[in-house]
Amino acid sequence: MVLPEPGLPARVRIHEVGARDGLQNEKATVPTEVKAEFVHRLADAGLTTIEATSFVHPKWVPQLADAEALMPLLGDLDGVRLPVLVPNERGLDRALALGVREIAVFGSATESFAKANLNRTVDESLAMFEPVVAKARDAGASVRGYLSMCFGDPWEGAVPVDQVAGVAKRLADLGCDELSLGDTIGVATPGHVTALLTTLGEAGLPAARLAVHFHDTYGQALANTLAALRFGVTTVDASAGGLGGCPYAKSATGNLATEDLVWMLTGLGIDTGVDLARLTATSVWMAGHLGRPSPSRTVRALSHEE
Amino acid sequence: MVLPEPGLPARVRIHEVGARDGLQNEKATVPTEVKAEFVHRLADAGLTTIEATSFVHPKWVPQLADAEALMPLLGDLDGVRLPVLVPNERGLDRALALGVREIAVFGSATESFAKANLNRTVDESLAMFEPVVAKARDAGASVRGYLSMCFGDPWEGAVPVDQVAGVAKRLADLGCDELSLGDTIGVATPGHVTALLTTLGEAGLPAARLAVHFHDTYGQALANTLAALRFGVTTVDASAGGLGGCPYAKSATGNLATEDLVWMLTGLGIDTGVDLARLTATSVWMAGHLGRPSPSRTVRALSHEE
């Protein structure tokens, strides 16, 4: 039974982050061959944008130290975009050398997190991204800009929407094709989402250029997604099986689970192209490799794990 | 930072079901004194409607076999409503003898669940409720009618909104002051909620007379709640700490957790009167008695259990 609510989009593109954002925040390190199979299974399940890995220095993210080995194993998946995260020019050069055609940079809306995560001020981090974005675009690669801590920050509390819009505008002006608004600690609620999207629209950043990246730390991710969809956002980040804890809130629950998102969107009559049974089977399989059950409610319900 | 969305109510009344619906579906049986302390702690946390127990035959729900012993321990909590579930006239008489002033009956929108849960057809169960509701009202008690399987049914699949509206109308016409629409297996999505509420309104049942009772089995409960709030519903059922598994879906996750609900409502600037820190402490305390961690994401995040 398909019962859409008025004003919602007919189709949503899911930006799958499990292989990068998910695995980067799991304690267990997964063998390269398993990661490659994971990406292939995600593509088989119908996902068309699969963030594959990160070219950050292995010292900072040992879980993804095998980026160079992984990319050739992925091959050329027909119709599937395989963006990768790059922290700086050196990471970009490594990615471009492997034929990557889509990259992402990872910025912060707050000074505290910029300092904690990038060891730079917000100004310094934007200065670092500038040549990365320019070089990527010169090489014909499209660029996504992640903006973290868009709602709350563990050190600063609630983050003013004008502050977020200011940093978002500068990141967009560097040349990012898309901005992904991250609720890194999962504290946002739907009214806050609408307020931020309104402010961003007024700042010249329409919903069509934005993605939302919600964490389910406080169980709010789907309600927030619904608010964003109503506002016209059609790109939603999610992580298969809810992979990835939240390092900045002591909770096993981090990213919105792709399965929970697909359940809602399917019920709303919104096309995602995803085969939920295949995706759930993939998440159960990956949970076996990680040695912990999936935190996704839909995965648990459909797989009868408990 | 309070950022309400337009069209939402200023205040929501939470109908707390943890002590009844929650404990009735937990494996562990809690001592009567612990139940009494639980209800007192819920009241201390600011909840004003706390469903206390059920006067069903102990053979069917052994976890709540101590209803007669429990009620006198609760005393007269100032400003707090303490409804109880009654399955039939015998249960009603037991409750009224203890001074109960608010009762609930538990019906089904589908024949399959009426048969499985009540061993009656829908017609037969409504006939059973008729004298119960009449006698309760004669005694000055208010009556809530639960209607389960309002969205999906494990045997019948999706439940047509017209079928739900038909049973709901008959239950209301018996004299129920309020109807609580249950998504017993947690499969609903927001568009389905809006569609059902629309159909109920057309059938003469306005939002003011309705409550929603969502299960979080597939992670949809808060998104569904948001859809109901937009429609004008101002009474929302929830269970402290998410107590109560879901016996009809093999998942540890049943009722919407009150804490997750309060987090969303507070962020939306909607008054609930609930002190979230006190409520979370109560759920952590109860989880200790039950020997399993709370499935509430907000409880986990705030209590740093993991």
From TrEMBL, chains A, B:
Question: What top-level branch of life does the organism fall under?
Answer: Bacteria
Q: Name one GO molecular function term.
A: lyase activity
Show the Pfam families listed in the entry.
Answer: HMGL-like (PF00682)
Keywords in UniProt for this one? Lyase, Metal-binding
Q: Which PROSITE patterns match?
A: PYR_CT (PS50991)
**InterPro entries given in the database record:** Aldolase_TIM, HMGL, PYR_CT
Q: Which residues form the Pyruvate carboxyltransferase domain?
A: 12-280
The keyword Metal-binding appears for this protein: yes
Q: Does the keyword tRNA-binding apply?
A: no
* Family named by the database record: Belongs to the HMG-CoA lyase family.
Which named protein is this? Hydroxymethylglutaryl-CoA lyase
Q: What organism does the record attribute this protein to?
A: Streptantibioticus parmotrematis
